[in-house]
Amino acid sequence: MTGKTIKQIKLGDTAYFSKTVSESDVYLYAGITGDLNPAHINEAHAKNTFFKTRIAHGLLTAGFISSVLGMQLPGPGTIYMRQSLNFLAPVRFGDTITAKVEVVEVIAEKNRVRLKTTCTNQEGTVVLDGEAMVIPPKAKT
Asked: For the segment 40-80, what is each residue's pLDDT rounded down to a tens digit?
């Protein structure tokens, strides 16, 4: 399975991934990364924070972008080079997040693709945006 090559990618190409964030997702992420910030895993603590409840890790949400890049656009074989992230709104347990990537530049001579990256919740609120640079897979010879 190989993703799209530089010759197959066009300006404006888009792809999506959606997932409902569960309590289990947040606890698994906390365990894997070691980020046990009580804002994510302790409801009693989180009730006294700005958000008044536990929220998902920002980088858990950003991981949904990685899913799109690695599995769809460009897809398998893609090398993730760079990502900027702006965290704009919290992701709460039970939110359904849709990650979208859109090709904004194809740099054929360097085999690079620049993409706009966005995550929105079920209400259409942008919770995260940024930009990625990737190396798409090379054509099979």
From this structure: 999 999 999 999 999 999 999 999 999 999 999 999 999 99
Superfamily of domain 6-21+56-135 in CATH is Hotdog Thioesterase (3.10.129.10)
Domain segments of the chain as ranges: 6-21+56-135
Burial letters 17-33, b for 16+ CB under 10 A, else e: bebebeeebbeebbeee
Query: CB count, 10 Å around CB of 125?
Result: 13
User: CA 25 → CA 33, 64, 122, 130, distances in Å?
Assistant: 12, 12, 17, 23
Q: How far is CA 68 from CA 19, 51, 63, 104, in A?
A: 12, 28, 9, 15
Helix, strand, or coil here: 41? helix
